[in-house]
Amino acid sequence: MGLELYLDLMSQPSRAVYIFAKKNGIPFELRTVEVLKGPLHPQTKGYWKRRQGDICPVLHRDVAILIYLSIKYQTADYWYPPDLQARARVHEYLGWHADCIRGTFGVSLWTQVMAPLIGAQVPEEKVKRNRAIMDQALQQLEDKFLGDRAFLTGQQLTLADLMALEELMQPVALGYDLFEGRPRLAAWRGRVEAFLGAELCQEAHSPILSILEQAVKKTLPVPPPEAYPNMLLRIAKIP
Amino acid sequence: MGLELYLDLLSQPCRAVYIFARKNGIPFELRTVELLKGQHLSDAFAQVNPMKKVPALKDGDFTLTESVAILLYLMRKYKVPDYWYPQDLQACARVDEYLAWQHTTLRRNCLRALWHKVMLPVFLGEPVSPQMLAATLAELDETLQLLEDKFLQNKAFLIGSHISLADLVAITELMHPVGAGCQVFEGRPKLAAWRQRVEAAVGEDLFQEAHKVILKVKDSPPADPTIKQKLMPGLLAMIR
């Protein structure tokens, strides 16, 4: 049993791990987890196991997984640069990302798909607030991180760009084309996708990009009733 | 000009950076930025960090923000003992995992506990409903349970048998609700025992010094109206 990755391409961090592993030719067994079938139990957010006989740690958290994979599989330097300052910039982005991007950019999946799936509704006020918060974050992303650089932490693509792209794709898939009217960010997206490869991006993004269509056609997996209380709690926590 | 650290020991991540630098004998100039006086909103500080947040590091021409980035930078540049962020790939992944988890969980809940219980009503004169406070404290409780069950378990420290960045970041977070008067360690003998070990590993004197400010925060005099007005928008966003 080699590397197993428990992922759901509906989820932003899962896509980042998937793309990273595929792009770097890291052999793994994909274990698909269906986020829509229930709340994100901490266990399901990107598992990996070592070979039998080794210690079997299970790693959660996309950032930890990406860093681990980059070191273990000795991926090209640019992903997680060894230079002291360049690496510090990646961590600086990831820290800000955890506070300002994570969570915020995932709200639209809840408001437009998950809540309706269980017959709940997110108040319009919260939807508006989320949009305003996203817009503010995008402004900071452009001004503080991207600036006039090619990528978020410098002239080379890093883990930061991958994490950011996958988060930004989420609202895009749910109908908010946040790249429109933001030419700098749109150009950055173009560069990141060109680097990763159109085919790989297509493969990783197509499930989430078809989610609204699936919702309309009612072909989405339905969460079991046991999942409702946690889902409602999650919805209530949307600021 | 050597290394400068822009800190306010009121802030959890600042305490972690302060303790780490002091414990490892890293020479630095402390530049205090008093959050309750709104100094982080000044033009002067904006030159250092346009995001107007602490901690911030200035090393010659290189300015860095975000506490985890700062801790890792210091660790690599000053070649501190390995145990803080182990060479061993799996152990180091565990530290990364903790540091990633705590952002939206322990950190957020500790911050909200302090602000809802003490700072909003006492410092800002903004009442917090009992329901809101109860909900915040319940969330904190849940996170503490996760900390014990998922991370600490039966180990001496969060990652293993030695202190690491994970423990330092966690303990400085937990001192926030302690400063607010929450009995975080009561009824949690495992966590209380871990706290003792972390304090001992850091050194009692340094630990006390780093926590002087937060432990007195309940006694903060109310903010004057101008300060309050300046601070409110940022604060409300921060504790969302």
Automatic annotation (TrEMBL), chain A:
Protein localization: Cytoplasm
EC number(s) from the headed UniProt entry: 2.5.1.18
Domain GST C-terminal: 83-225
Signal peptide range in chain numbering: none
SUPFAM superfamilies the UniProt entry points to: GST C-terminal domain-like, Thioredoxin-like
InterPro entries: Glutathione-S-Trfase_C-like (IPR010987), Glutathione-S-Trfase_C_sf (IPR036282), Glutathione_S-Trfase_N (IPR004045), GST_C (IPR004046), GST_C_Theta (IPR040077), GST_Theta (IPR051369), Thioredoxin-like_sf (IPR036249)
Residues in GST N-terminal domain copies: 1-77
Transmembrane segments: none
Main enzyme class: transferase
Record carries keyword Cytoplasm: yes
Keyword NADP: no
Reaction(s) catalysed (UniProt annotation): RX + glutathione = an S-substituted glutathione + a halide anion + H(+)
Keywords, ordered alphabetically: Cytoplasm
Family statement drawn from the similarity comment of this UniProt entry: Belongs to the GST superfamily. Theta family.
The protein's name in its UniProt record: glutathione transferase
Organism: Galeopterus variegatus
UniProtKB/TrEMBL annotation, chain B:
E.C. numbers: 2.5.1.18
Reactions the enzyme catalyzes: RX + glutathione = an S-substituted glutathione + a halide anion + H(+)
Keyword field contains Ion transport: no
Source species, domain of life: Eukaryota
Domain GST C-terminal, first and last residues per copy: 88-220
Key words of the record: Cytoplasm
Subcellular location: Cytoplasm
Keyword Cytoplasm: yes
CDD domains xrefs: GST_C_Theta, GST_N_Theta
Classification via InterPro entries: Glutathione-S-Trfase_C-like, Glutathione-S-Trfase_C_sf, Glutathione_S-Trfase, Glutathione_S-Trfase_N, GST_C, GST_C_Theta, GST_N_Theta, GST_Theta
Annotated ranges, domain GST N-terminal: 1-82
Similarity comment: Belongs to the GST superfamily. Theta family.
Subunit structure comment from the entry: Homodimer.
Protein known as: glutathione transferase
Organism: Galeopterus variegatus (Malayan flying lemur)
